[in-house]
Structures are given as structure tokens and as C-alpha cells.
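Tutorial handout. Part one gives the primary structure; part two gives the three-dimensional structure as C-alpha cells.
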Amino acid sequence: MTDRIGGFIVVLEQDIREDDAEATLTALRQVRGVVSVEPVVTDTDTHLAHARIKLDLRMKVWNALEAL
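Part two.
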């Protein structure tokens, strides 16, 4: 028996302005079987998480380079 897919999460490469997102929203809504597409507004928590992830990756790369 196979699993059933109820939806997808699409993650953008970077945050875009709401008015610039209209074409992407329209395209996603035109995909067959799509019932709804709702944009997710970026908030302060998202920015904090991105900054911490970037710092963590920088530190890992730096530590790897120092080990050489």
C-alpha cells in the first residue's frame, strides 16, 4: 500500500516582496489539483533563525579550515 500525498511545502530561495510574489502565486494556483495557495509572511523569528543558521554554518566551515 502506498502513502497518499495531501500537499506540498514550497520554500523560496529568498524572501520576496508581496507584489513581486503574485506571478508565483498565480502559477502555483494553476497546477492541476491545487486547492489553495497561501503565502507565509516572514517575521522576526524567521530572520533570527536564518541569522543563527548562517552563523552556525560559518563556524563549522571555519573550524574545518582551521583543522587543516
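Part three, for discussion. The chain has a mean pLDDT of 92. The helical segments are 22-29, 44-66.
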